[in-house]
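Subject: for your reference before the review

Hello V.,

The reviewers asked for a structural picture of the protein, and I figured it would be easier to keep everything in one thread rather than splitting it across files. Below is the amino acid sequence we used in the manuscript, unchanged from the supplementary table.
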Amino acid sequence: MPAAPKTTEAPGRGIAALDPIPPVALVLTGVTSIQFGAAIAATLFDRAGPEGTSAMRLSWAAIVLLVMWRPWRHKHAAAHLRLVALFGVTLGLMNLTFYEALDRIPLGVAVTIEFLGPITVATVLSRRRLDLVWVALATGGIVLLAAPWQQGGGLDVVGVAFALTAAVFWGIYIVVAQRAGRVFNGGEGLAIAMIWAAAVPLVPGILQAGTALLSPSLLLAGLGVAMLSSVIPYSLETEALRRMPANVFGVLMSLEPALAALAGFLILSQSLGARELVAIALVVTASIGVTRSSSGPASAAASIDA
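And here is what came back from the structure prediction:
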């Protein structure tokens, strides 16, 4: 989670307090925050399940972002509100399916599989033949991860299916987020979209977690996940996009699968073998390759995460 959700366009004015920090440091901090937020989220599954955890993360993120951006101050056209509703529902489905995958397969593996979404979208939008090589490389990495030839030793099939579904929603999200970024100021569109996103796992989350969601300690942990996975990385990476080339930003974002593997190892004790590490390296290489060869779409793809 997947994902911090970020729009693909930075606002005209930055966050003054972040001006002294180099943009590369902002991106790396944001990426690290996303993946360690996902790892911490996985530790809540025993108490709230993936649905309940997703509901808490997205609900808290909606509250914080609404307070930050106060989108009610401006009037928005009905067509724009419909667009942002699609934006939010897609975000909610992406996060929910990613957490379902994370409940079944290691974090580094789930993030790596999910990266097929932005890589594929970048290739389709760029229409460069060279990008087909990167897609083939990424696909090879995913097959190496899944290891279908290993009877009983491969990945959980349902977990892989959820990760691939999250990748599809990530791809859809990229296209919708680009359109929403053109008609909303700063993070206003994201703040409104987050309301719709939070509604997606709300009922399944309540049914799964029940009264556990009223636990103060669990709610506080959910707030922490929302800050690490959504609010902090969104703020840092939006500021970084304002001050650095989009293709450089995309290359840095391509490090996410590797950082996810590190977070999974440190927090969840998920150790990966040589095969898995080689597979992750293949997908990271493919993501960097498609980002560098596709200046526009690839960088946009890399700027969004579950």
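For the response letter, the relevant points are probably these. The mean pLDDT is 86. The chain has one domain: 21-302.

Happy to draft the paragraph if you're swamped.

O.
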